[in-house]
Amino acid sequence: MNHMDIVGRILQSLRPRRDGVLLRSDVNDFGSPTQVSAALKALVEKGLITRLDRGVYAKPDKVEQIGRQALLEQAMAKMAHQRTQDLKRARRRRSDPTAIYVRQLAKREGIVFAPTFADLWAKAVTKLAGDEVKSDKTDDLLVALTRAGKLTPRDMTRLVIAHHRNLARV
Fold this sequence. Notes:
The radius of gyration is 19 Å and the shape is elongated. It contains nine helices and three strands; from the N terminus they run αβααββαααααα. The protein has 170 residues and is mainly α.
């Protein structure tokens, strides 16, 4: 992906944010770490975003309206919330027998999830639309196992349903 595409995607992802805060983790999937860093640096140099701290950026008008410190506090709260969500997901994965089965099957068959262009496109469109629909590692492994012919589409569907039911219970 070229530099201008990443810059455009970052700007698009920032546009609908009411709080005006952008975390580096929000845009990591837009390119390689070097490409994302270069794009963020270019946006800061052009004055289109303001760097508040390491990995924390904001819209310049929000910095003027709300203030640097208040935005940093919002960003820290957002990062803490993301960490809490990540920990909850990790706990659910450990207690989900379907996820354990899928990981073991993938390991035994030597299958790993490698996103296709269509996967990356769908993820980007979903993110830009502001939707919170996210697949987890188990969902990704189920896709990889099905693509490799190790699971039938019917089995994959059954396992996805079981996995998400398990997640809802925890």
